[in-house]
Specification:
This protein is α/β, with parallel strands linked by helices. It is built from 5 helices and 14 strands. It has 2 domains: 155 residues, Rossmann fold; 96 residues, Beta Barrel (Elongation Factor Tu (Ef-tu), domain 3). Helix 1 crosses helix 4.
């Protein structure tokens, strides 16, 4: 069973090893694959969940996510209480299990076949994704009775923000929440791309290598997914051929606004 672990523990952090160990305890056949995102970045986590979960995957695949900044309540949190454990089943058959925080479910809220709360406490440990949630996730994965609770009110899940950076890959490409529309773009057009207070010239392109070496491109990237009824969304990327766009814009954080002139 492939288990993607989408979390903000940090690359190579001990926390990933501890969570993998606990998941393997409850699901011995699991094949865990860590997917790190920046600290507290529910937007990046939600983007990864959709990208992994809405494409063809091996039978039984599960996405176990934990980016839980406990921002749903600013008051003191007795017992380390935090966001509740949620479950979603996608049309691909992939199961998504993790703390419902921020934008983690935003990209799949209108696509998932099912949304339910998990029958799991939301408090009891500072490290809930190691001490509490793996056992609940395993119960759901194994189809145990009473592992799931009530349906989730979808109106309470926020939509993803538009025209922002959602993810930065290892090459420094900026994956945005700007959908690509081939009918509205003029290939080869020179534009000004602004991220926060940094602005650079770019070329509108229809592919990664359709610009000269050293040029900045504004083009559909490798990320996107089916959205039902035969539709598909493909997200615009900002990338510097032969370089690092994230460095060029002075490393903007996830959620930074992107505007075009």
């Amino acid at each position: 069973m492939l288990v993607h672990i989408v979390a903000d523990y940090g690359r190579g952090d001990l926390a990933f090893a501890e969570v993998v160990q606990r998941i393997k305890l409850h699901l011995p056949d699991a094949e865990p694959l860590p997917v790190p995102v920046p600290p507290f970045s529910t937007l990046a986590a939600g983007f990864c969940i959709a990208q992994l979960g809405l494409h063809a995957a091996p039978p039984g695949t599960m996405i176990y996510h934990n980016v839980a900044p406990r921002e749903d309540d600013q008051a003191p949190r007795p017992g380390n209480a935090g966001e509740r454990l949620a479950y979603a089943r996608l049309p691909t058959g992939v199961r998504v299990i993790g703390a419902n925080s921020g934008y983690v479910l935003s990209f799949i809220k209108d696509i998932a076949d099912k949304f339910r709360w998990a029958a799991s406490p939301a408090e009891g440990s500072q490290f809930r994704s190691r001490d509490i949630f793996p056992q609940a996730a395993a119960a759901i994965a194994l189809g145990l009775p009473r592992a799931l609770g009530d349906e989730i009110d979808l109106s309470a899940l926020p939509p993803p923000p538009s025209s922002v950076i959602a993810y930065v890959d290892g090459y420094g490409n900026l994956k945005t929440t700007i959908p690509y529309d081939a009918k509205k773009v003029r290939l080869g057009k020179r534009i000004r791309v602004r991220v926060n207070d940094r602005e650079h010239e770019a070329t509108v392109s229809d592919g990664t290598f359709a610009v000269h070496h050293g040029e900045l491109a504004f083009a559909p990237g490798s990320s996107g997914w089916p959205i039902g009824h035969g539709g598909k969304v493909q997200w615009i990327e900002i990338f510097l051929r032969g370089g690092n766009a994230w460095d060029l814009f002075e490393r903007p954080p996830i959620g930074s606004a992107v505007s075009i002139k």
